[in-house]
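Worked example 2:
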Amino acid sequence: MKALRLLAGLLLALAASSAWAGSCPPFMLRAEDGSVINPVTGQNADKPISTRQTCGAEGCHDYAAITKGYHFQQGWDVIRDDFSKDKPWVLSPGMMGKF
């Protein structure tokens, strides 16, 4: 619960900062089912935040395009189990499966 409030506060602070001014309109945090999360009042505070519903559903960001990007995928889209015989947990050339 404390971590959720901290994350929510950070997201709200970033959204209100001058660095982001004009980039994102005021928005509500949303759960995967689209319900509003308000950690201040406790409304749905037990639900995890969904970036798809918070940032993509409002039409602010092209969530489908962002999730296809290399830095988002970090090798998830090319995962296989033959990248390293010495380190079998390395599953991709990206960060997926690495320590």
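Helices lie at 2-16, 51-56, 63-66, 70-73. Residues 2-16 form the longest helix (15 residues).
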